[in-house]
Amino acid sequence: MMESVATLLARGELLLQVSDSAALDTELLLAYTLDIDRTWLKTWPNHQPVTEQIATFEQLLLRRLNGEPIAFIIGTQGFWTLNLKVSPQTLIPRPETELLVETALKIWKPANCRALDLGTGSGAIALALASERPGWQLTAVDSIDGAVQLAEINRQNCQLDNVAIYQSDWFKQIPKTDGESKYHLIISNPPYIEVGDPHLKQGDVRFEPESALVSGLDGLHDLKHIIHSATDYLEPTGWLLVEHGYQQGVDVRGLFLAAGFTSVQTEVDLNFLDRVTLGCLP
Ligand SMILES: C[S@@+](CC[C@H](N)C(=O)[O-])C[C@H]1O[C@@H](n2cnc3c(N)ncnc32)[C@H](O)[C@@H]1O
Question: Among 174, 221, 223, 242, which is most exposed with the fewest C-beta within 10 angstroms?
């Protein structure tokens, strides 16, 4: 039976009712199947996809029904102004992480800046900053080879020449030098979920690797290491900015102060939850 775009959308939405974004998910999957953008679906509701396209669409709906994140099914995710490839080797970039990018752009005004993105994953933070500030020199590292490769593909697709991406276990492979090559900004969205947190068994995170999510019994293992070590890699008056869980604000501010940072403050996300803490060296 031939079906129109409008009927396929209605059928998909009904099937995906368990998702709180059923209509959007269905549109994204049909647009991906037909290799067109979502506005096309609105313009041509009576178009009738061919049988093979309908079969593909139905397979994608079933994957979504099974809980697989839309970004992994269609292979991309929008972040800031960029369309980034994603992979099960690392985190799908989240909208709340855009607060890190916004905050970095707000605190560092000079046109030139050496900035380091630790745990770059898809490259989201470094590439967003590089796209906004062509005069900045970004370094982006991740410990997972698949993430480094993904970030490099995204860098090439975004045609950004001011980002160097390589593999490093946090600061380990980053040269510790005096003066000239220290960083003005260090930015990180590290893993910060507690081992055994029940949220790890719900939603999209079931499909993402533990290496991108989990950080010791208290969720603070990596944050402690990054905050403590960053002081050796920052210029005087350089800033460290980290994303963390909404219940970790007090602990993270304490870690910044203990490491000798000043002007320590926490920014809240769109839901008014503690999300990004920053501080600068004296
Ligand atoms: C929460 S994800 C963030 C990814 C990306 N920055 C973003 O915001 O979408 C954390 C990232 O840290 C990386 N990571 C975990 N342990 C690391 C380590 N020891 N050294 C460097 N990167 C690490 C993970 O592979 C993952 O890509």
Answer: 221
Q: Is the CB of 124 under 6 A from ligand 1?
A: yes
On whether residue 78 sits in a domain, the answer given is: no
Do 260 and 170 have their domain in common? yes
Q: Which among 100, 115, 118, 105 is positioned nearest to 229, based on CA atoms?
A: 118
Please indicate whether residue 49, judged by its CB atom, sits closer than 6 Å to ligand 1. no
The verdict on 91 and 56 lying in the same domain is no
77 found inside a domain: no
Does residue 178 carry a pLDDT above 70? no
Show the domain range for 187.
Answer: 87-280
Predicted TM-score (pTM) above 0.90: yes
pLDDT digits (tens, 9 = 90+) for 250-269: 999 999 999 999 999 999 99
Cα torsion at 42, 43, 44, 49 (round to 10°)?
A: -60
